Amino acid sequence: MKPIIFAGVVVALVALAALRPRPLAQAAGDPGFAVVELFTSEGCSSCPPADELVAQIQREDKDRSVFILVWHVDYWDRLGWKDAFGSAAFTGRQREYANWLRLSSVYTPQIVVNGKKEFVGSDARALRATVENDLKDAATARLSIGSLQQDANGLSWSWQAGAVTKGVSLVVALVQRSAVTNVKAGENGGKTLTHVQIVRGMRVVDTDGKGSGTGKDGMACGTKGRGRGGRRIPAEQG
Asked: Are 214 and 158 within 8 A, CB to CB?
C-alpha cells in the first residue's frame, strides 16, 4: 500500500446532499488533524455502537480538524441483509489496511485513525485518546481544496498542496452526510440504523510530486440495493 491519505495530509470531503466541500485549508505548522475511518456494515450486529460513536465524535469535534469517513464493507451481505452502502471496493480498502498494518484478517467494526493506528470501532476510550494525541501533532504539509463544480458528467475540483513528494496521492471521497435504514433481515433485522459521513465513491489522484492540480470524476454514489465485534474473516476471503 503506497502512501496515500496520511503521508501528505490529503483528504477532501464532499457532501452528497449540498455538494459543498467541508472547508479544508490545512497549512504546515497548523494544529494536527485526525482522519477517522470506520469500516462497518448494516449486516453486522456489533456495528451499530460504532456508528453511534463516530456520530457522537462528529458532534463533539465539529469545530476541530477531525474528518470522519465511514466505509460500508460487503462481506457480511451473505448473512441475510444486503447493505445498500456496501461496496467491494471499500472492502478492498480495508484489506489494504490489513496488509499495511500487518493484520491477519479484516473485521468489523474497525476504526483506523490517520492510517497508523487501528482498534475495534466501538472503543470510545481508544478513539478519543488517539484523536486527542494526533491533534497535538503539527501538520507537516499544506492542503486546500476548491473550485468544486458539478455537471452532467460528474464533479470537478482543484487542489493545492505543499511539501508534496513523489508517491503521495490525493484521496477524494464523495460523502453522504447522513442516512437512516430500516433493516428488515439479518443480524440487525427489525432495527432502525442511523449513519453519518457515508462514503459513496472514492478517487485516488496521483499528485506526481506536484503542488497543485485539478480533478474530474463521474463518481457514482456507491452500490445500489439494501459480524460481530471482533468477528474476523481471512483476509483473502470475501
From this structure: yes
How far apart, in whole angstroms, are the C-alpha atoms of residue 53 and residue 61?
A: 12
Res. 77 pLDDT band, cuts 50 70 90: very high
Question: What is the spatial distance between Cα 144 and Cα 162, in angstroms, rounded to a whole number?
Answer: 9
CA distance 237 to 208: 33
- Measured between its terminal Cα atoms, the distance across the chain in Å is 19
Question: pLDDT by residue (tens digit) across 106-132?
Answer: 999 999 999 999 999 999 999 999 999
- Dump pLDDT digits (tens) for 170-179: 788 889 999 9
List the grid coordinates of 91. Answer: 472492502
Mapping DSSP onto H, E and C, the string for 15-60 reads: ECCCCCECCCEECCCCCCCEEEEEEECCCCCCCHHHHHHHHHHHHH
The dihedral region occupied by 205, where left means phi > 0, alpha psi between -120 and 50, and beta the remainder, is: beta
- Residue predicted with more confidence, 38 or 205: 38
Name residue, grid cell 459521513.
197
